[in-house]
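User: Can you help me understand a structure? I only have the sequence.
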Amino acid sequence: MPHIIIEYTDNIKEDILVEQLLKKMNDVLISYPSIFPIGGIRSRAIELKHYRVADGSEDDAFVHAMLKIGAGRNERDKTNVCDLLFATMEAHFEMLFSKRYLALSLELVEFSESGTYKKNNIHDRYK
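Assistant: Let's start by predicting it. Here is the structure, written out as tokens:
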């Protein structure tokens, strides 16, 4: 498991190129097969219809990505992956960022294996 969840405001849905963004984010995780099994990678994007940014006086937008991983990876690996994911987001949104007010963010959520339940036969394809 790593899961990437991307939330984005609906006022940029025409410009976000969500399928391309999800592929790019997955590609980053796939480039670390010793840390993240390919069969466990999941990504999804959620368009937000109800939100408020800053004081609400402008047509501000945001994209927030959350990387959820199980505990056990070392700090350097986590930092390297998050740095690359955020750089990928920055590059993906470079043009849009130059044309409008836009906030980008990335959050790492690490949780213990207790309390999570998984069953996945996709891993078998990559053995």
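Now, to help you interpret it: The mean pLDDT is 94. The first helix runs from residue 18 to 30. Let me know which part you'd like to focus on.
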